[in-house]
Amino acid sequence: MNKITKSIFIVAIGLLLASTPVFGQIKWNSAYQAYIDQYKDLAIEQMLRYNIPASITLAQGLLESSAGRSDLTRSGNNHFGIKCHGWTGKRTYHDDDEVGECFRAYDNAKQSYEDHSRFLATQSRYARLFALSRSDYKGWSKGLKQCGYATNPQYATKLIQIIELYNLNKFDKATNYDHFMARHAAEDTPGPDGMLHVIKAYNKNYYIIAKDGDTFKSLAKEMGISSRKLAKYNERNRKEHLSAGDVIYLKKKRSKAEKTYKKRPHVVKPNESMYSIAQKYGIQIKSLYKKNKLPYDYEIKVGDILNVY
């Protein structure tokens, strides 16, 4: 290898090393974002009660549970990898540092989040963390590693990467949270894919998107709302078949769309119905007919202009 070739080789290697992170870079993915949407209000609730940054709780939950998809989470609702030390409750067994280690198990995610907060708040080895500012997520991340929460040498770095990639520290400034979301988003056992139906807010209401195999009965059990009420809120019969992608509201729909649509009428597109349009904007179908002065037997056509506010 001549001097010129050798110099080019050295520069190339240098550039490669410079572009490669010391620790594996956390990349954005939809499963992580869905987990955040599902549990952010619960994390804020815990922060306001125990003074643990919501960003730290969410980042640990994401990392320890693989965004709710780990075997430990699916079998025991354990979102934080907490083992059985001093635990007298339900338990499950998984391979970790050793084969068949004992981990705490819970009835639902809410119990796991609550136990995680108590675990940090009541153990003396974590006491110094509570002297840190709630906004100091880097200090909390490094402190958790130093206090022995995890054996992975990359633990603090990964928490910081997750927090910064998903801008989780914005939740550390919260002074309130959505009580409905905090209660309903975490009361039940995750489904086969590790995630509950993600509850989203829209038009002063809440909704979920139906999956294959869902029924009003199964959704009612998950959400803690009677199937009769759930069907009524969505102006359907509780025995009706649900299709994947159906929007299912969790409270009675409003009589008008969000204010942003005050001067933005809906233009009917192919395959739309009065019902699908009402669901799209989170409004009652009778209100849609009424505000457009249409008889209930009117059949809409592509290109019709409908007021939704």
Question: Can I get a quick summary?
Answer:
The chain is mainly alpha-helical and 309 residues long. It has a 3-stranded antiparallel sheet with strand order 3-4-5.
Detail the topology: elements first, then pairings.
Elements: H1 3-19, H2 30-50, H3 54-65, H4 71-76, E1 91-94, E2 101-104, H5 109-122, H6 137-146, H7 155-165, H8 179-184, E3 200-202, E4 205-209, H9 216-223, H10 227-233, E5 247-249, E6 266-267, H11 274-281, H12 285-291, E7 305-306
Antiparallel strand pairs: 1-2, 3-4, 4-5, 6-7
How would you sum up this structure, described in words?
The chain is mainly α. The protein is 41% helix and 7% strand. The protein has twelve helices and seven strands. It has a three-stranded antiparallel beta sheet. Helix 6 (137-146) packs antiparallel against helix 7 (155-165). It is elongated.
List keywords for this structure.
single chain; 309 residues; mainly alpha; 3-stranded antiparallel β-sheet; 7 strands; 7% strand
Structural class: mainly alpha
Helix/strand order, N-terminal first = HHHHEEHHHHEEHHEEHHE
Q: Which of globular, elongated, flat, extended, rod-shaped describes the shape?
A: elongated
Task: Give Rg in angstroms.
Answer: 25 Å
The oligomeric state of the chains shown is: single chain
End-to-end Cα distance: 75 Å
Task: Give the % helix.
Answer: 40-55%
Q: What profile does the largest beta sheet have?
A: 3 strands, antiparallel
**What is the number of helical segments per DSSP (H or I, 4+ residues)?**
12
